[in-house]
Amino acid sequence: MKRRKSLLLLMVVFLILAACGGNEGASKDKSESESTGVNVNTTGMPIVDEQIDMTIFANKPAQNEDNDWNDILIWNHYRDLTNINADWNLHHPDALEEKRNLALGSGELPDAFYLSQLTNADLLKYGGQGTFLPLNDLIDEYAPNLTELMENDPSIRKAITFPDGNIYSMPSLIEEDFLSLRLSARPWINEDWLEELDMDIPETTGEFYEYLKAVKELDPAGDGKTIPYGGTDIIELVQWLSGSFGVMNHGPSNTNIDLDPADPSKVRFYATTDEYKQLLEFIHMLYDESLIEQNIFSIEWGQFLANAADNLYASMIFYDPIELFGEEVGSQYNSVAALEGPEGFKDYNKLSSSIWETSSFVITSENENPEAAVRWMDYFYSDEGAKLYYMGVEGESYEEKDGESVYMDHILNPEGDMTFEQALAKQLTWLGSISGIIKADFFQGGETAPQSMEAAEKIEAFVPEEIWPRFTFTEDENKVLESTGADVDKYVEEMRDKFISGDVDLSEWDNYVETIEQMGGLDELLGVYQGAFERYQEN
Question: Domain for residue 1, yes or no?
Answer without folding.
Answer: no
